Amino acid sequence: MSILSDIGGLIAPASVAVVGASNDVTRIGGRPIAAMRAAGYRGRILPVNPNRDTVQGLPCYPSVGELPEVPQAALVAVPAGLVGEVIEELGKKGCGAATLFSAGFAETGEKGEAAQRDLVDVARRYGMRLLGPNTLGVYNVGIGYYGTFSSSLDTGFPKLGNVGIASQSGAFGAHLGALARDRELGCSALITTGNEADITVADAIGWMAQSDGTDVICTYMEAINDAPALLKALDAARSAGKPVLALKSGRSAVGARAAASHTASLTGDAVVADAVLSDHGAILVRAPDTMMDIAYVASPKVFPVRHSLGIVTVSGGAGIVASDEAERIGLPMPAMPQAAQAALKELLPYSSPANPLDCTAQALNDPSLLEAFTRRGLEDGGYGAMLCFLTFVAGSKAMSEAILTAMAPLRRAYPDRIIAFCALGDRQVLRQYEEAGILIFEDPCRAVRALDAVLRLATERNGAAAATLAVPPVALPSRIPDEAQAKALLADAGIPAAPEQAVQTADEAAAAADRFGYPVVMKVLSPDIVHKSDIGAVRLGLRNADAVRAAHAEILAAAAHHAPNARVTGVLVASQLSGGVECLMGVNRDPVFGLVAVFGLGGVFVELLNDIALRACPFDTDTARRMILSIRGAPLLQGARGAEPADIDALARMLSNLSVFAAGAGERLISIDLNPVLALPGCQGAFALDAVIELDEQEAGNDGH
């Protein structure tokens, strides 16, 4: 069954029972009825209250069992202790979905969690879907369905449009809806999921991805309770060409604790969440106003293929401010072609037509200049979007008609580009530009940021298709391997190490070193000693057999002294490679998204700059290469300051192979750390110089019983 049909009855019901219905329009059981009647909901409203014969002028029924028909959905507004009984009655009646306004469940602790699980068990027995509990509900603007008790409706109903809102928090979701309304941004639906006992934000996004009435999805999440379903929903939205603007809270330690308390859910690492959600097409935002700005730009469904901005301005200063912001966020502003600049100079000799295209205040006397400069930017500059800074001039009644007459034809001539004004003034005047398809912003920097987010969509969609990878199962050892064992395991998966050998005696060490050639490196082998150099159990630059024999004794002595209880399995002798660029790569198990791979440069670049790339496992070599080149330190791998480029192809193969290995390793794999990985110059390859694999040994023991 598709997501759309699965919860469609909850969001667009033909009939709705209101259990706990109230005649008081200010109470939770009364607000939805009043709102639906005021909005013209054409479905059947069936109030249920044993103490009343009518509610708000509608016939009222004493129980669910005595309803004259089977409601497609139900709103439940009764005390927590009665909810289970109501769900049972609704299930017996044949109701397909219920919105549970009632609080007092998982958000209150273990007892509430158990009661919430019982609700789900009952609902599933009858094939019923549950929204909540502890939810503010839903609304569907197109049909006038307001299955919500939100007080935001007291100040007006949403404007019908194509922006959907899916929010775990009811109050914050309603706040977003009110922001959209006040911005005159049209909404299709609001779905708030509360405790997510059953229906999650992922279900809501999935429904909107398939709904004809929604083209832009705004989502607020406090926690991610079903990561696979969420990623599937994001993929569905991306495939449908619908941007998902995501605000994920719980980023700070304090915020994470608050989210867990409020929703009784785990909150994963924010950096991992950002990376994984972005990989699946989500546009991450940090603030509601940013979300509304981007939704406003995206709602006309104009997604240019070129990620570039042209600015036309009547003020040199404003052009500089906007250009600075574009450079800061990485929005390209290439200069106009020389021939086009010359043509504009001929039209207005004292203009500055590079980009920004400054047509000066003369455009106020002659709006045809504004049209000419903007047209040249679209035609000759080829910019994906044009931002025209006109300040209060565009908003004045005296100038607006001439400006609109000059500029509206451009909107029709270039339907695949975005045209926006930065303007102040009479709202009725500015609305005329919007009706002509021209966006209006007050703040040039906010305009630049919102335009950038939408202009990136086409580029990111073009690179979104991922190859289907074969993930063979990996047989893991029962105990955590030492470094040599870990490298051998990884080598079978296409992750090479330098030539090396595990030895037990000094003579074996010397023989191995003679075979590899000097210099060599030696270190203790122990699954219990991760930081070997910290205890003096590593020796570098050994250049003869005598040094190797001495190092063998010193390493074992250091391990015995500093880690007397560690399992020591021998000493590793390895060829000491030189040159190239040191990197790190690894895999960690995120509590929400599972196994996530990380790549960065070695040393201070990671520790001080937090310069890393992350992605959920597995992924192919093309994706791995994009990860590698996405870090700020990538120029060091590409041959900075005349150095020979490192073998990025070998790094990408290794990183992809690592992700596939991890995906095939199963639930016992906790982490893999390859640090350093040496990427040699040219086509000489990349090699893991150290490897640590952390496993769940207890789980392996359980498997054996």
Protein described:
By secondary structure, this protein is an alpha/beta fold. It has five domains: 1-152, Rossmann fold (3-Layer(aba) Sandwich), CATH 3.40.50.720; 158-301, Succinyl-CoA synthetase domains (Rossmann fold), CATH 3.40.50.261; 309-462, Succinyl-CoA synthetase domains (Rossmann fold, 3-Layer(aba) Sandwich), CATH 3.40.50; 499-575, Dna Ligase, domain 1; 581-703, ATP-grasp fold, B domain (D-amino Acid Aminotransferase, Chain A, domain 1, 2-Layer Sandwich), CATH 3.30.470.20. The chain contains 26 helices and 29 strands. The protein has a seven-stranded mixed sheet, sandwiched between helices. Strands 24, 25, 26, 27, 28 and 29 form a six-stranded antiparallel sheet that branches. Strands 2-1-5-6-7 form a five-stranded parallel sheet, with helices on both faces. Helix 1 (3-11) packs across helix 6 (201-210) and helix 6 (201-210) runs parallel beside helix 7 (227-239). It is flat and about 95 Å long. The chain starts with a helix and ends with a helix. Mean pLDDT is 92; it is low at 1-5 and 254-268.
